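Sample A.
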Amino acid sequence: MDKEQLLGLATGWRLPEDEKGLELYLGALERYSASSTREEFVDFILEIRDRGKRGTVDYIFAVYPAVRSFLNRFGETPGRLLVGFMEASNAGEEEDETRFITRLMELTPDDRTVNLLFVLHSRKPPTSDMKRVDWELEQLSKIENAYPSDPIVGEVRKRLTETKRPIGDRSNEDLWNKIFGLVWKEYERNLPKLLLG
C-alpha cells in the first residue's frame, strides 16, 4: 500500500456513521506502518495532518492514530514525544497527554517548551497544601532562571503575581491561549525535524 492509497482510505468517512471506513483505514495504517520507511511515514503524517486541519479527514480517528502508530514503530525520542503530546492534546486524548508530558519531563526536565506545557497541562500542584498559583509561579521562576530572555514567562509571572489567579482561571484565559499559541507555532515550524529526530 502506498501513501496515496492510504490517504484515500482516510478520506470520505465520518464516525459514528461509517465504522467500516475506520476499520479499513486502521487495518491499512497498520500494514503501512510495518512496511514504510521513517521518511515515507513522516511524509504521510504531514499530509494527513494537513488534510485533518482542512477538515477533509477526521483528525481524532485518522490523524492521531497515524501519529501513535509512528511512535510505536520508530520509537520515542524527546521530539517524537512532543509530537505525541501535541497531537494527543489536539485529539482530546487526555491519558496519552499525561503519559507523554510525564515522559518528556523525565527525559528533558530543563526544556523550556516542555516546562511550559507541563504548567499548562498539570491539573493540580504536586502537593495538596500548595496553592495552584504559587506552584505555577514556582515553575515559571525555574523557567525564567533557565531562559532569562524569554519575554512570555516574565509577562505570565507578572500577571499571576498581580491577579493571584492561576493560568487556567477564566480571567487568565488569554495568557493560557498565548502560551499554547506560541508553543504551537514553534511546534508547527519544527514538526518534520521533531518526527525525524
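Sample B, a different protein:
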Amino acid sequence: MANYSKTTNFGTKDTLPTGDSQKIIRGSEFDTEFDNLVTAISTKLDSPASSANVNFLQSGAAAVSRTAESKLRDVVSVKDFGAVGNGVANDTAAIQAAINTGSGVFFPDGTYKCSGLTQSTNGQRLFANGKVILQKNANGVILTCSGTEVELNGLMFYGDASTPTFTGDNVNASGNNFRMVNCGSRWAYARAVKATGGHTQIIGTCDIYQTTDATASGYDIEIGVSGTATFYHQLFGVYTSQSSGGILFTDTGAHVISGGQFGKLTIQSGTSPAGVNGGITSNARILGNVTVGLSSAVFVGNQFSAIAFSFSAGTSGCRLDMSNVFASGATVVNSGNTNNLIERETSAGSVNILRYGADANYRELTLNLLDATLAYEFDGSCVLPNTRAYRIKNAAGTVLSAVALSSGNDWTIGADSGAGNFMNIVSGDGGIYLGPGNVSSFQAVASSFRPQTDASPNLGTASQRWNTVYAATGTINTSDEREKQDISALDDAERRVAVAIKGLIKKFRFKDAVQKKGDGARIHVGVIVQEVMAAFQAEGLDPMRYGIICYDQWQESPEVLADNGAVISPLVPAGDRYGVRYEELLAFVISAL
C-alpha cells in the first residue's frame, strides 16, 4: 500500500537470539503499526478512485473479474451529481450533468425540480425507480431529446401546478425511434409530449398525458411535422383525462393507436408528402371530436362519446366500420370521397338498425327482432351486377331465383317452383302497369285489362297469333257516326262484288290443324282471301282499299335464350299472310241480300 510504511520491522526481530530483549514485540509497537495501517486504509478508501482498487466478480460460470469502479459506472444516478429530489432544490444542473455522461441515467424515487434539460446521445435511456417526477421550475421545455433510439421509462413530467404559470411543452423529441414506456406528462402549459421524428412510441402509462390548453388547438400529444413524412408511430394504452386535449398527427403514415382513452383526435394533412395516410385507430375510448384529413384511415372497435366525426375533403379509402360504437347524439360527416366506408349501428330497443353512410346521405338496414316475419327493411337501393340474382329458398331448402338480370340484360322474374304452385302479383286499386321499352303500354285493374293509349296496341301479331279467344260476349267495335267520314251507300260494282263473295263461301280445314290432329282436324266455313280479292279486281276495284282484306308480312325473329340455355322465345322465320275481317265481310255480303 503506497501510503503505508512500517515503523517496526517484525522480520528483523525474528533473527535475534533467544533472550534478547529486542526480540519481544511490545504492545505499544503493535498499536502503532495497527493505527498506521488503519490510517492508510481509511485514506485509500476515502479517495475518489478507491473503487478502482476493489475487484468485483459476478456469480456464474465464465464471469470476468473487474473493478468495483467499472461495475458501479454501468449506471449513472442523478444523485451521483448532487441531485436532491426533495421537490424544493433546483436539480437542473445535476440532472444535466448525469445526462451528459451519455450513459443510462437512473432516477431514484423523488420529485426533481428542473427545466431546460437537453439530451443528444443516441441510444440513451433515462429510467426511474419508484415514483419519479420531473417538475418544471422555469419557462420552456422540461426535457428536449435530439438523440435517436432514446428511451424514457417510468418518468413523470409535471408542469409547476395544475394551472401552470411556466410556459412551454413538457417533453420535446426530434430524433427517430424515440419512445416513452410507462411514463406520464401532465399540467403542461402547451404539449405534454411533442415528437417530430419517425417511429415514435408511447407505450403504457404511469400517469396521464395532459395539456391545460383547452382551446381547439390544444393537444396533449403532437406527433409529426408538416412537410416531412414520418412513419410507424405507435401509441399503446395512452390515457388522458379530458375531451379538450387529445392527439394530433401531421403528415404521418402507418401510425397505430391501440387502446387507451383520449380527447379529440386530429389526423391532418400538412403538405401531404408521399406515403402519408390516416393509420389505424383501434380499441380506444375517444372523448373528443375526430377529424380525419388523410386517406386510408381505419377505425376498428372504438368507443366514441357524443362527438362530431368528420372525413375532410380529399380523403378516400377510409374505413369506419360497424365494430365502432357511438354514443347517442354523435354525428358523422363525410366531405371526402364516397368510397370512404362508413358503417354505424344505431339500434334502439328490439330493433337492430345498421346505418351505411354519413349522416347527410345514409341508408339503413333494419331488423325488428320482435317481428315474427324477421323482415329486413332497407331504405335505399340494393344494386347487383347482371348475371346475379335475388334468390329465395323454398320449403324444401332449394334456392330459387326470384329476380335476375342476364348477361344480355334481360330480366327474369320468378322460377319454376313445382307443380301446383303459382305466382301472385298483387297491387293497390290503381292497378298494375306494364311498360315495355320504358313506355307504359298496358294496365290491369280490377274491372279490365286495357291499353294506356286508346286504339293503339294489338292483341297478338301476324306471326304470333292467339289460338282461341273465349269470351262471354262478342267484341264491340266502334261504329259511332261522330268518328266516321266519307259515309255513303255501296255502289253497283260493290254490290256485284258482294253477290259474288256470297257464292265464294266454302268449307275447309287448316293445314297446321291437320298436322297436329290428322283426321281429327275440324272443318271450318269461310272464304279464301285470294278469291275475295279476285272478285274485287273483276269489277275494277282495288281490294286493298277495303278494310275487309288484311295483309301482313314480317322479318325473321331470332331465338331468345336465357343464360341457362332455356328457350324464352323460339325462332320465327320471315313470312307473310293474308286475312279478312269477317265482321266487315259479312256486313258487305248482307248488303246484297
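Observation for Sample B: The chain has a mean pLDDT of 89.
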